[in-house]
Amino acid sequence: MEESKREVKHIVLAKFKEGLSKEEIEECIKQFANLVDLVPSMKAFKWGKELSIINFHQGFTHVFESIFETTKGVEDYLSDQNHVDYGNFLMPQLDKFLIIDFEPTKVQP
Amino acid sequence: MEESKREVKHIVLAKFKEGLSKEEIEECIKQFANLVDLVPSMKAFKWGKELSIINFHQGFTHVFESIFETTKGVEDYLSDQNHVDYGNFLMPQLDKFLIIDFEPTKVQP
To answer: Quick check: A1 contacting B, CB < 8 Å?
Structure first.
């Protein structure tokens, strides 16, 4: 069943500003995760600190992965007031970010 | 069970060079996927074209997501001759790339 379900991943790479405390960063992550409860089209959220072995990560420190069922779902999320408010809270705390969406596809042998 | 299994994601963002044919790009993706059969620590592979609604993806055209169980698994993959050969094949076909690893974590409510 799960294999046939469509999934769009919304990946945010973020570099937090120098000087932010661990608690401030944790609050950003917690509020990001909280959007799952506020935005109907956002189905899941995971995050992780950058753990790269090789130095091709361009200084990004965190990865945020949100799951939607369609690109329309991402669109609804982007325009949702809860997301807009969160963006206004998060952005001033970031040095830089990159956002990319894709639909994970398996290569058939 | 799945929740307790450790997972490290190795994300590659790529921008293919202008002028590559659809077939040449497909061959790059197919050979990337083929590494799952060649490199023991690489557990799964998915890919997708960039589908972003907003323009913060910095020109990257494709996302490649490989799954490992540990960062040691990523390390073994990076030094595996099959991966090295594939990298030598892929890199000249890219305008740019970004590679970042993370361990997807859920935020506990």
So the answer is: no
Query: Are the Cβ atoms of B100 and A63 closer than 8 angstroms?
Result: yes
What's the whole-number average pLDDT of chain A?
Answer: 94
Q: Domain count for chain B, please give it.
A: 1
The pLDDT tens digits of the residues spanning A78-104 come to 999 999 999 999 999 999 999 999 999
C-beta of residue A105 within 8 angstroms of C-beta of residue B48: yes
What's the mean per-residue pLDDT of chain B? 94
Give the span between the Cα atoms of A97 and B54, in whole angstroms: 13
State whether A47 and B104 contact (CB < 8 Å): yes
For chain A, give the number of residues.
Answer: 109
pLDDT, tens digit, 9 for 90 and up, residues B69-103: 999 999 999 999 999 999 999 999 999 999 999 99
ipTM score for this prediction: 0.92
Which CATH number is A23's domain given? 3.30.70.100
Instruction: Name the strands in the sheet holding A44-49, side by side, starting at the edge strand that comes first in the sequence.
Output: A44-49, A62-68, A8-16, A94-102
At B108, the amino acid letter reads Q
The C-alpha atoms of residue B53 and residue B64 are separated, in whole angstroms, by 19
